[in-house]
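Hello Y.,

Per our agreement to keep a running log of every chain we model this quarter, I'm adding this entry. I've kept the format consistent with earlier entries: sequence first, then predicted structure.
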Amino acid sequence: MTKTTTPSAHTAAPWKIQGKFIGTETKPICELSCSLPEEQVDANARLIAAAPELLRACKRALELDVGDYSASLETLFESVIAKAEDQA
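Predicted structure for the entry above:
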C-alpha cells in the first residue's frame, strides 16, 4: 500500500451546525435547503458537520498499519479519502 498525504483544501474543522448553515464559528460552509423530512435533514447535517473528523479518522486508521485491517477495509478507507480529496 502506498501512503500519500496531500494538503487539504477544505475549511479546517471543527464544523458546527448553526441553524440551517454548517460551518466554523465564523465562516458558513453550506446551507441546508431541501424538501426532505426534518429528521433526514438533521441526519445529513450531522454527517456533513462530521466530515473533516471522519476524513482524519480514515487517514489515521491507514497510518496505524497494524495489520488488523482486511484488504477490503483498507480499500474502503483509501476510496473514501480519494473521494474527499477529489482524487477518485
